[in-house]
Amino acid sequence: MHSTKENLQVLHEDNHIIVVNKRAGDIVQGDKTGDKPLSDIVKEYIKEKYKKPGNVFLGTVHRLDRPTSGIIIFARTSKALERLNKMLRDKEIKKTYWAVVKNSPKKNKDTLVHFLKKNPKNNKSTAHIKEITNSKKAILHYKIIKKLDNYFLLEIDLETGRHHQIRSQLSTIGSTIKGDLKYGAPRSNKDGSIHLHARKIQFTHPVSKETIEIVASTPKNPIWDACN
User: Is 223:100 a contact under the CB 8 Å cutoff?
Assistant: First the structure.
């Protein structure tokens, strides 16, 4: 299931950035599990492809939760990393996600505003209607784009990028993501994934300044296949 440099799905590549389609189950950066992170796999890929001696520079611009699939941007130069980090802070990188949920939200489309508080002990964020101590404002816009046999496909545009934001906000309105046990789904997915996919990204290239728009194909399974 996990990526190796042989099955790495590269969506865009130039001298300054490399964009890949992360598989569910991959970790973006090293953590306490000691599992090999995606960043190392991408480094190996670059090292081999371009026959680079020594260490390969690779900057992680943003992350995706381990059970989530989809688009990840890495920077290949420190200049690109610095500019992309600033663009992320200034909300100039537009991210669109797809989520499969069992229960339809009450409205076909809506903007959700919550205050999220992260609990590091159980690595979970709780959404509150009003601001509480140490909470961060979280805003997303969703719309139902397809009705499947037993599920609904939502398209989500993120305005803020908080810890577990989509997972927490959707579960708070009763539309938990399929397979997301941590946020109240009745069952996990066999492969440990959740049905949340970073589908599309739009940004201005940090160096060439051209507009980049990238779409990542969904994982191969019957429910995702029905979404396309």
Answer: yes
